[in-house]
Amino acid sequence: FSMAMVAHNHNHNYMFKNSKMNKALSLILSVLRGTSISAIRYHHNHNHHRYHGAAPNDWSTPELVLELSGVKKILLYCFRAGSKIKAKMHELKLQGNPTILKLNKQINIEFLAIFLFIGLCLYLNWKVFVFLTFPILIFGNLFLIFLNLIQHDGLDIYGPITVSSRNFTGRFIN
Predict the structure, then answer these.
(1) Which of 82, 115, 134, 148 has the smallest CB count inside 10 Å?
(2) CB 174: neighbour CB atoms within 10 A?
(3) Nearest Cα to Cα of residue 28 among 105, 20, 133
(4) pTM (2 d.p.)
(5) Cα separation, 110 vs 155, whole angstroms
């Protein structure tokens, strides 16, 4: 959970003035999370926080699963939102989006590091990886996407930010 908070804050604002330090932290967080922090950064800052869940512009809008409820809604939302984000990022890359093209090298390095980490884990002890590490990576990523659903589902996503998002802030949570 703490690592997810560090990753979230790092996505909003780089933690270091030195770009190499920021790239190194992104690489470490990517390996620990099992997905590219740099790829998430673009969607999170340039799409999600721009549209705050409003369809059709927000790629991870709760309206992807408006007709569903319960566990089926949660699982299908994670799949649909993840697939749409991946497709939109690929589309922007093909269109020559300068921000995506600039991030692409870092994204590729992060995915290579994740692949190497998984390979090393499988080599060292495949049972621990399959039964402990892999479920944690998958659950962590699903939980992150699920939190977005909780934050926006059932709210007026076309209204101002104060009514279109639950911010989970208060006396004990900030």
Answers:
(1) 115
(2) 7
(3) 20
(4) 0.71
(5) 35
* Residue that is written with structure tokens 């939302």 in the block: 77
pLDDT digits (tens, 9 = 90+) for 89-145: 888 888 998 888 888 888 899 999 999 998 998 899 989 888 877 887 777 777 777
Spatial neighbors of 13 by CB under 8 A, at least 6 apart, are none
Tell me the per-residue pLDDT of 38-82, one tens digit each, with 9 for 90 and over.
888 877 777 777 776 666 777 777 777 777 788 888 888 888 888
Which residue type is seen at 170?
G
E-strand stretches of 5-48: none
d(Cα 13, Cα 79) in Å, to the nearest integer? 27
SS3 174: coil
- Gap between the Cα atoms of 44 and 60, Å rounded: 9
Longest dimension (CA), the chain: 51
Evaluated on CA atoms 69, 72, 75, 80, the torsion sign reads: negative
How many C-beta atoms lie closer than 10 Å to residue 74's C-beta? 19
